[in-house]
Design a protein that fits this description.
Pathway: Isoprenoid biosynthesis; isopentenyl diphosphate biosynthesis via mevalonate pathway; isopentenyl diphosphate from (R)-mevalonate: step 2/3. GO terms for molecular function: ATP binding; phosphomevalonate kinase activity. 44% of the residues are buried. The chain has helices at 110-126, 187-203, 214-232, 239-246, 257-260, 270-279, 312-325, 327-350, 356-374, 381-391, 418-435; strands at 20-31, 43-58, 69-73, 81-88, 95-100, 138-144, 149-150, 181-182, 249-252, 287-289, 299-305, 396-400, 410-415, 440-447, 452-453. It folds into two domains: 20-290 and 452-459, Ribosomal Protein S5, domain 2; 299-447, Alpha-Beta Plaits, CATH 3.30.70.890. The strands form two sheets. Strands 1, 2, 3, 4, 5, 6, 9, 10, 11, 12, 13, 14 and 15 form a 13-stranded mixed beta sheet that branches. A two-stranded antiparallel ribbon has the order 7-8. By secondary structure, it is α+β, with helices and mostly antiparallel strands. Bound molecules: adenosine-5'-triphosphate and (3R)-3-hydroxy-3-methyl-5-(phosphonooxy)pentanoic acid. Adenosine-5'-triphosphate is lined by residues 74, 109-112, 142, 144, 177, 182, 184-189, 191, 240, 312.
Length: 464
């Protein structure tokens, strides 16, 4: 630990905050990939049962010794501890965090670092008049549900000096986070959202942040979007952060200009500008609608991992270049696809299971057309073949290549019973053998709920 004689940021000694835990879901963009980048269109996004949890606990020190640090740990991975000192920048530049060494190593985690900068700046700014408030040192533990990353087949880290992997929700990976094989469920958005929520709930009194209120949800959304965009280095559509906060929804993005003129963290006026942007709820033109973002009774959304992943950035650039170059033709295609995406949401909202296969096939047809026109394999041939074959399995209504498409995990809509699950698993085993591929059904399911507070007992065995 770094000992410091400097008092922590704030005036009086910080009160000891209780240990709190929150979790936020992953996402799957069932319909509206690419279109959702443009405010003229919407996306149909589902939250997932795979969540990222963050537990915030005070770091206790001996009386008279001041610590000014935040320790973030992801104990499922090797070498995944990040330590930061923090201080107040001049001229309302906000809270600046500086990464500290852990032993001789220093490995960056830009999503964690940026979220700390944004959330601590906001927290300090809104509580600056409260003389009893200051930023105490905190330990943050991140735990990701299984299914965010594929576990190597030889895995489970367990040596004489290391505890065996606890069975159940949180796998222990035999490698570092940067070596993790992502399945594409939106780990960074769920992480940024639950880290932001954990910090806000940990440091702020309910009067300033009430996670259970609509205003609290909005504050969390606006702050998490700001931090996620900054960490990504670009303003995406933000559907993944919206799903992490609000759960399944029909999503219309915020105007990108909302975030384009924020001063850089640490520079004059950053704190006030960020707080104005986050609390200026009326300025946010995001639309989140719940109708149609549900599975009909007896239908479940499942994911099928094809174990390769895609380079989304290059695909987005190419599709948008086509959209710009072929103004009229591409608009016609997007308008028609938007109609089919909405028709799919309407079918789901009505609970009309008989119409699901047709609605999914209609969406896929135009997605393939967009792929051919833009030269981007949004639904690559091997995925078409797999989706078509899966559609023939008894109990499967059909599926799509979600989000940007490519080789990320497929989304399937199927009957929610064990027989169907067994048939799909047997089919995928057979397919993997025949095609020399590794295709498997993930345990994750569609889930409507967004961010939520968690009971600490869920994390037994993982907390320091
Ligand atoms: N369990 C974790 N602990 C700490 N940091 C994590 C964890 N999971 C993800 N992150 C952070 O998020 C980054 C991954 O973000 P990236 O946007 O590349 O993936 P993703 O959000 O899962 O992608 P996709 O949207 O395609 O699903 C990691 O490099 C790390 O900074
Ligand atoms: C292509 C895009 O519309 C969706 C990307 O989705 P995913 O990360 O592949 O789940 C990009 C975005 O909305 O930010």
């Amino acid at each position: 630990m770094v000992l410091s004689t400097d008092p922590p940021v704030g005036s009086s000694p910080p009160p000891v905050q209780p240990t709190t835990a929150v979790s936020a879901p992953g996402k799957v963009l069932l319909a509206g990939g690419y279109l959702v980048l443009d405010r003229g269109y919407t996306g149909l996004v589902f939250g997932l049962s795979a969540r990222i949890s963050v537990i915030a606990a005070p770091i206790t020190t001996e009386p008279g010794v001041h610590l000014a640090e935040i320790v973030v740990q992801s104990p499922q991975f090797i070498d995944a501890t990040w330590r930061y000192g923090f201080h107040l920048a001049e001229q309302e530049g906000g809270i600046t965090v500086t990464q500290l060494h852990v032993g001789s190593k220093i490995s960056r985690n830009p999503f964690v670092e940026t979220t700390l900068t944004y959330a601590l700046t906001y927290i300090h700014h809104v509580s600056r008049d409260d003389q009893t408030h200051s930023l105490a040192s905190t330990q943050l533990t991140i735990l990701a549900d299984n299914d965010y990353y594929s576990l190597p087949s030889t895995a489970t880290r367990s040596t004489s000096d290391e505890p065996a992997a606890p069975k159940g929700r949180f796998a222990r990976y035999p490698h570092t986070l940067s070596e993790a094989h992502k399945t594409g469920l939106g780990s960074s958005a769920a992480l940024v959202t639950s880290l932001t929520a954990a910090l806000l709930s940990h440091y702020l009194p309910t009067l300033l942040f009430d996670p259970a209120s609509a205003a609290g949800e909005q504050t969390l959304h606006n702050l998490a979007q700001s931090a996620h965009c900054a960490a990504q280095g670009k303003v995406g559509s933000g559907f993944d952060v919206a799903a992490a906060v609000f759960g399944s929804c029909r999503y219309r993005r915020f105007s990108p200009s909302l975030l384009s003129d924020l001063p850089a963290p640490g520079s004059a006026g950053f704190a006030a500008a960020l707080a104005r942007r986050v609390d200026g709820h009326k300025g946010w033109d995001t639309e989140v609608r719940k109708e149609g973002a549900v599975m009909p009774k007896g239908v479940v959304l499942r994911m099928c991992d094809v174990d390769c992943g895609s380079q989304t950035v290059g695909m987005v650039k190419k599709v948008l270049a086509w959209r710009a170059a072929e103004g009229e033709g591409s608009k016609k295609l997007w308008d028609a696809l938007q109609e089919r995406n909405e028709a799919l949401a309407d079918v789901l909202g009505r609970g009309d299971t008989g119409e699901i296969p047709g609605a999914l096939a209609a969406v896929r047809e135009l997605v393939r057309e967009m792929g051919t026109a833009s030269g981007v394999p949004i639904e690559p041939e091997s995925q078409t073949e797999l989706l078509d074959a899966l559609g023939e399995v008894d109990g499967v209504f059909g599926g799509v290549v979600p989000g940007a498409g490519g080789f990320d995990a497929l989304a399937l809509l199927m009957r929610d019973d064990e027989e169907t699950e067994r048939r799909v698993e047997a089919f995928l085993e057979d397919w993997s053998r025949k095609k020399d591929a590794r295709v498997k059904l993930l345990a994750v399911k569609g889930e409507v709920e967004g961010v939520r507070a968690e009971d600490l007992s869920v994390y037994a065995g993982w907390l320091p």
